[in-house]
Specification:
It contains one helix and eleven strands. With about 140 residues, it is mostly beta strands. Strands 1, 2, 3, 4, 7, 8 and 9 form a seven-stranded antiparallel β-sheet that branches. It has a two-stranded antiparallel sheet with strand order 5-6. The radius of gyration is 19 Å and the shape is flat.
Length: about 140
C-alpha cells in the first residue's frame, strides 16, 4: 500500500505531453481510425484528450470524435426521446499530430532553441509555432 508521501508525489508529477489544446490531430487507433480533428481539451493526469471535428452544417456545434451514444428517454407526454452523441476521451497514444508543413501525421520531439524548450515535427524538422495554433473552445 502506498504511503501518503508517495501519493502526494504521484499527484504532483504530471507527465509532459507532446500534444496541446488546439493541435490538429489524426486518430491512429480505435473506432474512428483515420479521422482528423483538433484537440478540444486535454487531461495530462489521465493522458487523455477530447477530439472534435468541424461540422460543415453547423459551425457553432463541432462533431465529437470517439463519441458514445446516450439515449434520453422522454419524461413527459409531449417530449421526444433522443439519442445524444457525447464526446468520450481518447488516449493520447492513439493520436498523432498533423504536421502543418506537409499535412501528414508526424511524431513530435522536443529540443532546446536558445533558452526555450520547443516542440518540433520529426517529419519536416520544423519548429511547431504554438502561438499560431487556433484555440477552438
Amino acid at each position: 500500500m502506498p504511503t501518503k508521501a508517495e501519493l502526494k508525489r504521484k499527484a504532483k508529477s504530471q507527465p509532459k505531453l507532446r500534444l496541446r489544446q488546439g493541435d490538429q490531430v489524426v486518430i491512429i487507433a480505435g473506432k474512428d481510425k483515420g479521422e482528423r480533428g483538433y484537440v478540444a481539451k486535454i487531461s495530462p493526469v489521465e493522458n487523455k484528450a477530447y477530439v472534435l471535428k468541424d461540422n460543415p452544417e453547423n459551425p457553432d456545434a463541432p462533431l465529437p470524435l470517439n463519441a458514445v451514444i446516450k439515449h434520453k428517454k422522454a419524461k413527459f407526454q409531449g417530449e421526444k426521446s433522443d439519442r445524444l452523441r457525447i464526446p468520450s476521451p481518447i488516449h493520447v497514444s492513439n493520436l498523432m499530430l498533423i504536421d502543418p508543413e506537409t499535412d501528414q501525421p508526424t511524431r513530435v520531439g522536443k529540443r532546446r532553441e536558445g533558452d526555450k524548450l520547443v516542440r518540433y515535427s520529426k517529419k519536416s524538422g520544423k519548429t511547431l509555432n504554438d502561438q499560431s495554433l487556433i484555440n477552438k473552445d
